[in-house]
Design goal:
- This protein is α/β, with parallel strands linked by helices.
- The chain has one domain: Rossmann fold (3-Layer(aba) Sandwich).
- Helices cover about 35% and strands about 15% of the residues.
- It is built from ten helices and nine strands.
- The strands form two sheets. Strands 5-4-3-6-7-9-8 form a seven-stranded mixed sheet, sandwiched between helices.
- Strand 4, helix 5 and strand 5 form a beta-alpha-beta unit.
């Protein structure tokens, strides 16, 4: 059996705070047994550099912890590490709780907007499964939207709780997605953080070398990922700056805007843009996942009185 040692620094409510219990996961998805072996420390594990192994592990996790029995993604698309994705959702819950007398608001009346739902639909799955929230998910790629729709339609718990919207203009993030009468309690986004395909592949090479402890000349993306998922012109800074500038137009449509910022050095550029659009408040929340540190930047244009009025609907 895997030991019960805590994974370093994950959110206290994260289901994945302990090491993977592979026998338990195999019970939920017997196919996972094909990829599980004892490593040199005599612990059960999988080869995290093997994309098929990672995909099967994700299916088992989603089945066991989130009651998602039908989940798949097209070949080559991003297969996200679920523990880190779940952390973002739990921190969003903390943010909402602080505006609600320290009580996490549950149920479908709480609505989030996932910018870049991808082909995997992970954030809405976790948010809906754990807290019962409803979601709109947007993406620039039609195939990603089709894949997420298929996941939603294949799981009764998700049906009717998650809506997908195609972004038809690559210059826009909120424009063309947020409708005039929409009200979102939060937005979330894990933006493409590389500036080019070459940079993304170099990052994947480093990741595989860290996982395998071996020098590799070339690495496939073990978690997959298409261009719009992993890189964009200007990288994460350009993407987030556009997001912040567009958010001003939808100041009254959303309580909290948020995004992940993967690189600490990018914060100063993001703060400069926030100061330019003048939200009522903004803050940064640090997330740690093992050796990896990322952060969530959140902002709102609502005054304290508008915030009090908003939560009355919760």
């Amino acid at each position: 059996m895997a030991d019960k040692e805590h994974k370093k620094n994950l959110h206290p409510r994260n289901f994945h705070n302990k090491r993977y219990d592979f026998p338990q996961l195999i019970q939920s998805l017997p196919k996972l047994a094909d990829y599980v072996f004892k490593n040199k420390y005599d612990d059960l594990s999988i080869d995290f550099a093997d994309s098929k192994a990672v995909l099967t592990l994700n299916k088992a996790i989603l089945s066991h912890f989130y009651n998602i029995k039908e989940w798949s993604i097209p070949n080559g698309y991003l297969c996200p590490p679920i523990p880190g994705r779940a952390d973002y959702i739990h921190y969003i819950a903390d943010i909402l709780a602080k505006s609600n007398n320290n009580k996490i608001p549950n149920g479908s009346k709480i609505k989030g907007l996932d910018i870049g739902i991808g082909a995997n639909c992970i954030y809405p799955i976790v948010g809906n499964s754990v807290y019962g929230w409803s979601f709109v998910g947007s993406d620039i790629e039609k195939k990603s939207i089709e894949s997420s729709k298929k996941i939603i339609e294949s799981n009764d718990s998700l049906n009717g709780n998650i809506e997908c919207r195609l972004q038809t203009n690559s210059d826009n993030i909120f424009t063309g997605i947020i409708k005039k009468d929409d009200k979102f309690d939060f937005t979330l986004c894990n933006p493409p953080f590389h500036k080019s395909q070459e940079e993304a592949q170099a990052g994947s090479k480093r990741k595989v070398q860290n996982l395998t402890k071996q020098v590799v000349k070339k690495a496939s993306l073990n978690f997959g990922g298409k261009s719009n998922e992993l890189w964009c012109k200007g990288g994460e800074v350009a993407f987030i700056k556009t997001m912040i500038k567009q958010s001003k137009k939808y100041a009254k449509n959303c309580f909290w805007f948020s995004t992940i910022v993967s690189k600490k050095d990018n914060l100063r550029f993001i703060y400069d843009t926030l100061d330019y659009v003048k939200p009522m408040e903004y803050k940064t929340i640090q997330m740690k996942q093992g050796q990896k540190i990322s952060r969530i930047v959140i902002w709102t244009f609502l005054s304290k009185e508008e915030q009090r009025q908003w939560v009355k609907n919760w």
